[in-house]
Design a protein that fits this description.
This protein is an alpha+beta fold and 404 residues long. It has 2 domains: 239 residues, 3-Layer(bba) Sandwich (FAD/NAD(P)-binding domain); 146 residues, Helicase, Ruva Protein, domain 3 (Orthogonal Bundle), CATH 1.10.8. Helix content is 32%, strand content 24%. It contains 13 helices and 19 strands. The strands form 5 sheets. The chain has a 6-stranded antiparallel beta barrel with strand order 12-15-14-13-16-17. The longest helix has 17 residues. The radius of gyration is 25 Å and the shape is elongated. The termini are close together. Bound molecules: flavin-adenine dinucleotide. Flavin-adenine dinucleotide (FAD) binds next to helix 1, helix 2, helix 6 and helix 13.
Length: 404
C-alpha cells in the first residue's frame, strides 16, 4: 500500500494534532510552520494555562452545530483528555468541565505535542511560510516564501484565523483557500472586549462587578450572561462580555444599533433597595450609595440619573429622580461602538464556507486531497475550551482521512 505524503501547513493546535494522527497512521508527514517554533498561540491560551477542552462540550456550543457534530462524536472531550493523558498531561477540571494541564502551564501542551512530533519522526520545517498551494493532477505543490517547492499527495491547511495576528495566524490562509477555489464568509472577531460610547468610562476604569449583562436588539434581550463584568477606559470586558461579543460584533457588522443592559444588583430586588433607601433618608446621596455599589460608580450613576447635586439628601429627591436612580441599578444601558479587534480577540468568526467541506473527513468538496482544520473554517465556539476542542476534533478527522 502506498504511504501518502501529506504536507501540513501551520504548526498550531490543529496542525500539530493532524500531523501526529497522520503519521501514526503511517503517512509521510511534512509539517510547515512560518514561526521559528511550533505552537506559539497555544502558549497564550487560557491566560497561559491552556483550557484545552471542556467536558461539557456539545455541538450547540458552536455556530454550526450540525457541521461539528460528527467530529465531536469521533474525537470529543473525552478522547481529547485521553489523548493528552497518554502524552503526559494530567487534567485539572475546573468550573464543572474546563480542562487545564495539572501543571497549569500552556507550555506543557506544546512540549508534549512537539515531543511526540519528534518521536514519530515527522519532518518539521520552521521559519517556512507557504505562499502558494497549487493542485496538480496527482497531488499538490506548496511553495515557500524562499521559492522552495514541496510536492505532496495531500495537503492539510491548518493556518488558523486572524485572531492574535502576532502569533502567525494573520489570515493569510484564507487567501490560500480562495486561490484553490474556496469562498470565505464575512469575518469578524469573537471572544473579544467591547468598546462603549459612555462619558463615564474614565472614572469607572477598573471597576469589577458581579452582575448580569444582556445584549439587546431593539429592546429585546437576545443574549444574557451572568458573572464578572469589568469596566475599562475603552469599554467593557470580562467573561460575560467575551461570550456576548460574537453576536454584538455580528450586529455591528450589519450596522445595527447595539446596546448592552447591565444589571448591577442581580442579587437584590427593588424592594430591598427601597428599604435601604428608607434607612439612608438623611444621608447625602453619594454616601447613601456607599456599600451598595462600587465607589467609582457612584458619581456616574448619580449623573446618569440626572441628579445635579450629589450631596443632596435622599429624602429631597423628586419621585422621578428616585425612580430613575433605582432603575439604573437594574437597567443601565450602554451603546457598543466597536470591539478591540483581532489583536485582542481569541477567535475569528467566519471562515471557509462549511458547505464546501465534508464534515465526515474535513476534506474539501472542491479540491479532492485538500483538508482544512481548526479556525480557518467558518466554525467558532464559546469561551471555555471549545475552540481548541474544535481544533483537535477537526484535526483528528483530517489526519485520519488524509492518510488513507
Ligand atoms: C489569547 C488567546 C487565548 C485563547 N485561549 C483559549 C483557550 O483557553 N481555550 C480554547 O479552547 N481556545 C482558546 N483560544 C483559541 C484557540 O487558541 C484557537 O482557536 C486555536 O489555536 C486554533 O487552532 P488552529 O490550528 O486553527 O490555528 P492556530 O493555533 O492559530 O495555528 C495556526 C498556525 O499556522 C501558522 N501559519 C499561518 N499561516 C502560515 C503559512 N502561510 N505558512 C506556514 N505557517 C503558517 C501560524 O504561524 C500558526 O502557528 C485562545 C486564543 C487566543 C488568541
Amino acid at each position: 500500500m502506498k504511504h501518502q505524503h501529506i504536507v501540513v501547513i501551520g504548526g498550531g493546535a490543529s496542525g500539530l494534532l493532524s500531523a501526529i494522527i497522520a503519521k501514526r497512521n503511517h503517512a509521510q508527514v511534512t509539517l510547515i510552520e512560518r514561526n521559528p517554533k511550533l505552537g506559539k498561540k497555544i502558549l497564550a491560551t487560557g491566560n497561559g494555562r491552556c483550557n484545552y477542552t471542556n467536558q461539557q462540550t456539545h455541538a450547540e456550543h458552536y455556530n454550526h452545530p450540525d457541521f461539528v457534530q460528527h467530529a465531536l462524536e469521533v474525537f470529543g472531550a473525552k478522547k481529547t483528555i485521553q489523548f493528552f493523558e497518554k502524552l503526559g498531561i494530567s487534567p485539572r477540571i475546573e468550573d464543572l468541565g474546563k480542562a487545564y494541564p495539572m501543571s497549569e502551564q500552556a507550555s506543557s501542551i506544546v512540549d508534549v505535542l512537539v515531543y511526540e512530533v519528534e518521536q514519530l519522526g515527522i519532518k518539521v520545517m520552521c521559519n517556512a511560510k507557504v505562499t502558494q498551494v497549487i493542485k496538480k493532477p496527482n497531488g499538490f505543490t506548496s511553495t515557500l516564501s524562499d521559492g522552495q517547492q514541496i510536492e505532496s499527495d495531500k495537503v492539510i491547511l491548518a493556518t488558523g484565523g486572524k485572531a492574535m495576528p502576532g502569533s502567525g495566524s494573520d489570515g493569510n490562509g484564507y487567501q490560500i483557500a480562495e486561490s484553490l477555489g474556496h469562498s470565505i464568509t464575512a469575518l469578524f472577531p469573537s471572544l473579544v472586549k467591547l468598546k462603549l460610547n459612555s462619558p463615564y468610562l474614565k472614572q469607572m476604569d477598573g471597576v469589577k462587578i458581579q452582575g448580569t449583562v444582556q445584549l439587546l436588539d431593539q429592546n429585546q434581550v437576545i443574549q444574557s450572561e451572568q458573572g464578572d463584568i469589568l469596566f475599562t477606559s475603552y469599554g467593557i470586558s470580562g467573561p460575560t462580555i467575551l461570550q456576548i461579543s460574537r453576536k454584538a460584533n455580528e450586529m455591528l457588522l450589519e450596522h445595527q444599533d447595539v446596546k448592552l443592559k447591565v444589571i448591577m444588583l442581580n442579587q437584590m430586588t427593588k424592594e430591598d433597595i427601597e428599604r435601604r433607601f428608607q434607612l439612608m433618608q438623611d444621608k447625602p446621596l453619594e454616601l447613601s450609595l456607599v456599600g451598595l455599589v462600587h465607589k467609582k460608580i457612584i458619581p456616574a450613576i448619580i449623573k446618569e440619573a440626572g441628579i445635579p447635586n450629589p450631596s443632596i439628601r435622599f429624602s429631597q429627591l423628586t419621585p422621578k429622580e428616585k425612580s430613575k436612580l433605582m432603575n439604573l441599578m437594574f437597567d443601565w444601558r450602554f451603546k457598543v461602538i466597536d470591539s478591540k479587534g483581532y489583536e485582542d480577540a481569541q477567535v475569528t468568526a467566519g471562515g471557509v464556507r462549511i458547505d464546501e467541506i465534508n464534515p465526515l473527513s474535513m476534506e474539501s468538496r472542491i479540491v479532492p486531497g485538500l483538508y482544512m482544520t481548526g479556525e480557518i473554517l467558518d466554525i467558532d465556539g464559546l469561551c471555555g475550551g471549545y475552540n481548541l476542542q474544535w481544533a483537535w476534533s477537526s484535526a483528528y478527522l483530517a489526519g485520519k482521512h488524509a492518510s488513507i
